[in-house]
Each structure stands twice: as structure tokens, then as C-alpha cells.
Amino acid sequence: MGHVIRKVGIEDLEALTELMYAYIVGFYKKPQPLRTDIHRLIRNLLQEQGGIQFVVDQEGELVGFATLYFSWSTMKANPITIMNDLFLLESYRGTAAEEDLFQKCQIYSKENGYAYMSWITAPDNHRAQQFFDKMGGTRVDWVNYTII
């Protein structure tokens, strides 16, 4: 049996929390958020008001997840999705599971009337950039900023 791409359910709370820690702390080397904060985020996304999450379920084990947030494009005057996260455990990167997870986000965006799906990746994440190029992504000329 292979992998299944599906929406997150409340039964995924603990396994998805651990996967998100692997992403935040293990991959990006950022401080570990409080477990209660991760749980609050997951529960909020379960309501599908501000976003949605999908997981890669490999025979009962979660091995990847993606998060889409809902926003608007002023230039399009239509809603858009922002793929904030696309993460798979290392042994699943570059596999059909990764492509299927990305395509699930793209299909969800199209089928639900979003004008487009956008995302960013770190400038030094060359593997991800090659993947997004392969999947048909278009690089844009915008410069991203953040402030705290």
C-alpha cells in the first residue's frame, strides 16, 4: 500500500505536532513553539476558515504536511491561497508523495475558486527551488520583507 494525501483530522493532532516540530526545529533550526500553540494552530486550521492543512499518510504514519492560508489579491480582486509550508521527512523528498502533496494544494486552490496559489522558499533551499521549477512554478520579481 502507498501513500494517501488527505485533509488533516483531529485524530492527527499529536502526530502532526511532531511532524511540525521536525519542520520547525529540525529543518529550519528555529525555536520550538509551545505544544499548546501548535495545537491551537492545527485546531484553527481544522475549521478551514483561515486555511487548511493536508498530510501525507504512509500506511498510518504521517510523513509530510502542507499548509495553505487563505488571503486576497488586490490586483486580482479575488481570493488566493498561500502555501506556507510543504514539508516531508527527508526520505520522502523527491518522491511521488512530495509531488502528490503539492498537486493536492494546487487542485484544492483551483477547485475552490482561488485566483492562484503562491509560496516562497529560502534562498539557499536549492532542492526546493528545483522541485518548484519542475512543478511549473514561476519565479517572480517581488522582494519579501518581514518585521517583528
TrEMBL record:
Q: Which residues form the signal peptide?
A: none
For this UniProt record, give its keywords in alphabetical order, as a comma-separated list: Acyltransferase, Transferase
Pfam families of this UniProt entry? Acetyltransf_1
Q: Which InterPro entries match?
A: Acyl_CoA_acyltransferase (IPR016181), Diverse_Substrate_AcTransf (IPR051016), GNAT_dom (IPR000182)
Q: Identify the residues that the record assigns to the N-acetyltransferase domain, covering every copy.
A: 3-148
Query: Gene3D superfamilies, per this entry?
Result: 3.40.630.30
Stated name of the protein: GNAT family N-acetyltransferase
